[in-house]
Amino acid sequence: MNSTEHRHDHSHSHGHSHDHAEGASERRIAVAAALTGLFMLAEIAGGLISGSLALLADAGHMFVDFAGLALAYLAFRIARRPADARNTYGYDRFQILVAYSNGLVLFGITFVIVIEAWRRLAAPEPVLGGTMLAVAIGGLLVNIVAFFVLHGGDKEDLNLRGALLHVMGDLLGSVAAIGAALVILWTGWTPIDPILSVVVSLLILVNAWRLVRDAGHILLEGAPAGVETGAIGPGLTREIAGVVDIHHVHVWAITPKRKAATLHARIAEEADAPAVVRSIKLALSERFGISHATVEIEYGLCADRGLAGGHEHGHDHDHGHSHDHPHAEAHRHKDRHEHRHGETGRDAPHVHPRLSGAPA
């Protein structure tokens, strides 16, 4: 028999500063998308005229980047939609989904470029070094502007980070195209074009993997970076008066800035449950940046005990909680009810009939 108190801090307010940061990121991505889209057209034309794989590969990369940037911009728009009965946490997670998708797209781009480079190495084609150099220099300037526009944004925003990664890939592609053009103009050695394309692709691949890994971790409800889940239970038990045990601790992130947690707190018989809940929520917010927390208060046995074939249900991050015998627990609740039933006056604590064991 236990008592539970579910306290939900279900605020979706990110604060004025957070909203301002998101608005700034959205504008930055819009500018980068416009720059990328316009120069993509020029680079396609330059690649076709010069016959450069580096330019065409970079133009293809920029096309996908333009689509990725446009999708990232759309993600910001969708994320502003309020929470509803179907999506109770709101739409912020759409940004993470877009970031994850952008990372996978970069994997695909890398694969295509490597295959085409292999074909070009096996059967070299003529390249107009002068045209290639002119277009590549223009692309470098555009990408530098776009890079610095995005680089000044929120570093924790995975959606912005994915957009920045796309632009960084374009910038490196432009640098490689310039290098390849100079080598071709000076030596006439055209294999440098596909070779440098592969080098750039591998650099992009490393960063794409990091983006997919980080976004995937959030989508899989992994513990947020910087939050040591195993330290939450012992820390709260040690620091908050009245807390006997913390278990069933689960921590995840809606986005890197929106962290959430659920936990069970077994408290002493005489403890003030609402005060304990407030203290736990305050500690989670101040120490771990967890703004949304659901705390289940228990006296004695865990509410989940006996579920799932007689074992504790769920992943218990603190296995030190009580395994009291049911009969002893029943006697304790009976004694507590009889004791409280006889109390009168203003000092007598209010106990809900169902929680004390009395008939409803």
Automatic annotation (TrEMBL):
Residues 310-329, 340-350 have a biased composition (Basic and acidic residues). NCBIfam families: CDF. The chain crosses the membrane at residues 29-49, 55-76, 97-115, 127-150, 171-189, 195-212. GO terms for molecular function: zinc ion transmembrane transporter activity. One of its GO terms (cellular component) is plasma membrane. Belongs to the cation diffusion facilitator (CDF) transporter (TC 2.A.4) family. SLC30A subfamily. It is a multi-pass membrane protein. Residues 238-298 form the Cation efflux protein cytoplasmic domain. Residues 30-220 form the Cation efflux protein transmembrane domain. SUPFAM superfamilies: Cation efflux protein cytoplasmic domain-like (SSF160240), Cation efflux protein transmembrane domain-like (SSF161111). InterPro entries: Cation_efflux, Cation_efflux_CTD, Cation_efflux_CTD_sf, Cation_efflux_TM, Cation_efflux_TMD_sf, CDF/SLC30A. Keywords: Ion transport, Membrane, Transmembrane, Transmembrane helix, Transport, Zinc, Zinc transport. PANTHER family: CATION EFFLUX PROTEIN/ ZINC TRANSPORTER, RE54080P-RELATED. This is Zinc transporter ZitB. It comes from Aureimonas endophytica. It is found in: Membrane. Residues 330-339 have a biased composition (Basic residues). Its main location: membrane. It comes from the Bacteria. Residues 1-21, 310-360 are annotated as: Disordered.
